[in-house]
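Could you please consider the sequence and fold following this short note?
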Amino acid sequence: MTSQIIDRVLRLSVYSKLKWTVVVILLFAFVFSIPSKLFNAPTSYVLTDSDGNLLSASIASDGQWRFKNSQLLPDKFKQCIIAYEDKRFYYHIGIDPFAVCRAIRQNLINKRKVSGASTINMQVIRLYRGAKDRNIWNKIIESVIAIRLEFSYRKESILTLYAANAPFGSNVVGLEAAAWRYYGRASDRLSWGEMAALAVLPNAPSLVHPGKNRAELLRKRNDLMDRLYKNGTIDLETAALAKNEPLPGEPKSLPHFAPHLLTRFKKDFLKLKKENESLSTTIQTTIDGRLQKQVNNILFSYHQKWRGNQINNAAAMIVEVESGNILAYVGNVYNTADSSVESYVDVLSSVRSPGSTLKPILYASLLTDGSCLPKQLIPDIPTQINGYTPLNFDLGFDGAVPANLALAKSLNIPAVKMLQQYKYQRFYDVLKQAGITTLYRPPDFYGLSLILGGCEIRPFELAGVYSSIGRMYLHQTQNNGKWNQMDWHMPNYIKRGNRKNNSASEKALTNPLFDYTAMWHTLNAMNEVMRPGEEGLWNQFSSVQKIAWKTGTSFGFRDGWAIGLTPKYCVLVWVGNTTGEGRPDLVGIKTAAPALFEIFRFLPSSDWFETPSSGFTYLPVCHYSGFKAGNDCSIIDTTLVGETAIQSAICPYCRKINLDRTGNFRANESCETPGNMIQQSYFVLPPTMEYYYKQKHSDYTSLPPFRKGCELESSSELDIVYPDNNAKILVPKEITGMKGKTIFVASHKSEDATLFWHLDNTYIGSTQHYHQIALAPVVGKHIITIVDENGNSISRKFEIVATVKN
């Protein structure tokens, strides 16, 4: 008996353990029946503007239009979907017992399925599990998991999951995608009739096909309107008006206002995702939708003119200086009708030759360094540096030009001279520190051509440098004259809230690049440029907005640039061909600049940049040369400069000259007693600089001649303008086929001097007043020698390398 009791107890114990094991297994299965994230299907990349309006979107990788879950589900959709699918949604625990009983009764009476009992929870689970047979077993599984869903999600979240993943016909998934595809608007802007039509579609998505089952779709939509009226959600008039609204038809094309920014976001997504794990494929951008459309229209309008010259592409962007946010991003003129123009290429992200757009950065660097003053004269004469011969755009020479005017006129030779002084290796480092990432080769590869566009940069980064200069200068007071590293960064297009502050995409600059005084002078020099089409009269009108701007043209007329800066906005325009093909008249001032100012006309004007608040001093400078004034300078001005300018060079061009007692001739002790000599200050340029300078400056006073009987003080009276020493000269043939000649040019302080020319020690002729002579030396090395009447001579070596054949 005892053994039987023990045996029974053991059997009950085993049964009890088995029962609890099953219970634990079932409980475990229930708890883990749904993953932490239900839906992992790819979503569309979607951009909205700063107001939430759709800019551009792309289809998801699985071929579906599927937008990210909306966190704020429209109330109209909630009311519609609950009334249509699950009227006791807020009261059941995932399954609706009343609906189950009703469905069983109706199906038994009719001996077929005429009613379902699926709740919204169950439909979410059905969408999650994918296509399954509609049998009783799958219904039970859906019911269990639907109850489990109720424990993990709030009611609002369950509705959001349903709205984001329900099918809406064709390849449209989710409410937001359906609203845009069928009505061309966001879901929160749909009417009752439009929302009701969408609410009935997930139950029968095939009804949306044009011309198919339209009557059934209309009936379902109107039945839903009646339900909403009966439950008090809407009044009778609203229901009647909604029933008269048209049904959705064939899916509409989505807005495509910023396709290139969308492409940029898709490329940036993985990097941005690492910085902000919560980032989704739908983002709100900083783009101003109105400005984006206007810039698109402006570029398209100018594009129609440029196409006549086979200029096919253009790009533009607007950056808000204060924040660094991008307000408009047009990577190219969008033209899907002609694939040959490559309108899909985002030029703002591509590398292009910058032309002269880097000159303001060099000017600011020199001023910060203190090695150049704002109006210091820079030589503008024929120049050859190690075989490199820079030329101004107009092929002319000014002799000498103030540094700020050289920038305003975008003269190439002074820019090369300035870079030679600053050193291209240092300037290379400045560009990299400023945020230019495309200088892939060492500085020696670029050399002095760096300042004339002999490198490639991205327009996006150039706009980032210019806007950072403006932002840094604007904040000088709040930064107490110090350099705030967080003010220097590349432009941003993602609205804050979708990204972390100070992310890796905004690399801050730690070392100061420019002082505030240098930036101020640079901005003012850029404001002095004559505007296209206004014949230099624009600055006579006080209503015209002040803009610091610069144009650029790359070698071979391949790129036309214009970039402008005000205290509020930085605007960049690029014009050219993505193929790199150059075209006549593809120059920045003729193509990009007019579009730049057209864009600025749509932007609110602002006050000009204020003068520096600290870190400056006032320096006496020579009125004629712009150098720091020396003892021999007769007229002295005062200029605001950075503190480093105190150590700048003293004027080398003003010097005291001894005149005879009449004051009309130069004299020395060989012809005049010291007591009778008169000392007078003169602004004296070297002969070559003077030769060109006095052609542009009628007020320039040359030194008076020596009085008869006086000896010349030095041979600096005479100079050879062309060629430079050791120059290599290529002589072309004339159109007639005859051998061409080279024009040799010399200068002399005395306008009446006679010069005697010798080639390889052979006398070839003389000149007076205008010292130019045409020669045709044979191929090889030669020496040109020039002697004046007083026996002063000068020689230059040169080489004729070849003649060009027809």
